[in-house]
Amino acid sequence: MTKPSGKVNLADFDNALTVREDMLNRISPSNILTKWTTLVMNKINPLNKELFSFTEGTLQSLIDELRTEQENVRVLFMDVLIDNSSIIDKQQYVQLHQALLIRLLDKLYAYQQNKIVTERIIELYNEVSRHLQNTLDFIEDFLSNYFDRNEKIPALYFTIYKEEVKKQLKKITLTLRKNDHVDKYLADGIIEFIHQFANIRSTNITYVELSYIKKLLNELLVDKALASTKSLRETLYYFNFNEDNFISYEYERLTSHLNNLSTNIEKINLLRFEQKNINQLSVKLDCTYLKFMPSLKKQINGWIDEEVKFLETEHLPVKINESNNEVENKVHTSLSVSKLALLIRLMVIDKIIINRTVAPMLRIIVKMFTTLQTENISFGSLETKYHAPDKATINTVKDILYKWIKILDKL
């Protein structure tokens, strides 16, 4: 027998390294996700009739293989992004995989709503979803710099979280209902907002939006936040809660204070004092409810500034002929103030009217339009009905819109 020489064969060593590199090049996160796509879109699709004849062994084999691939894909992601200089845009690379995982999770959620699937198949979908979600959570936690937080969250994840919101809603409702130190209208508004979110049907909620709601609700569950109207308002300003109903509440709160004063000087002083207090409230950095709308402070400041300008203006006597000319220069309508206000709000929501602040725009409407009842619309009346339309007006405007559709069909 020939004894080993003890020397390393460099040619064999180089060949071994080449084989290992080839294997690494063939196995990548993209390869595994491509395989998962085939699995979800084809193999376990309810339209695949063979799915329902799979044995328990076949199903378990699928799950075991997926579990192994899930563990491997984490290591592969880190290897590819840390050691692979050939990937120039790492953010795009991660976000493409993120979007694909969300798409697959939404597919599995849709499959579970299909009436033809059995409990056995639903268990399979749950298990596959769990592994895909674990991979997505890994990307969010360990590759957060590249993660797209403006992407929608998976439908199943949001459905599960809404159940948690319902539990939090019960706690917040109980706390607010038994607390006489919180304004009833403000408390009801917060409860209604959370209720609507917990029952929302849309699944197009982004990671940013969900994160905002989570932080806000967690803060509201702290006893201090719901202790009084003052502390609740401070919390909402801190989170830049620029939601329409809360802004309307703030307008009405300030208006009610103004109505208790008799002179313009007193009203101006009150508004400036309120403005000072609001501007001194703390605000969480890079935090907002509606990103496409101005911040809460900016909208309230705009409203206060317009009110102060109006109060500072001295109304001089107007000659009769000038008054008549003003009326002739207006647009005459057969609408009521409430209907006009609602139609304007529809145009603002639909971004037909794109003024940055509402109050100045409403002052222009007051000057330009008349209603069936009056030639001089009250700014306060129009503003109140703009922010708080009643159900009767909403139904009447619906009838108007239906009538417009019929008219359009005839044009």
Describe this structure in words.
- This protein is mostly helical.
- The protein is built from 17 helices and 2 strands.
- It has helices spanning 10-26, 29-43, 56-83, 90-112, 119-142, 155-177, 184-198, 207-220, 229-238, 244-259, 264-279, 296-312, 320-328, 337-349, 358-368, 379-387, 391-410; strands at 331-332, 369-370.
- It has a two-stranded parallel sheet with strand order 1-2.
- It is elongated, with a radius of gyration of 31 Å.
- 18% of the residues are buried.
Q: Characteristics of this structure?
A:
mainly alpha, 68% helix, 411 residues, 2 strands, 17 helices, single chain, 1% strand, disordered N terminus, two-stranded parallel ribbon
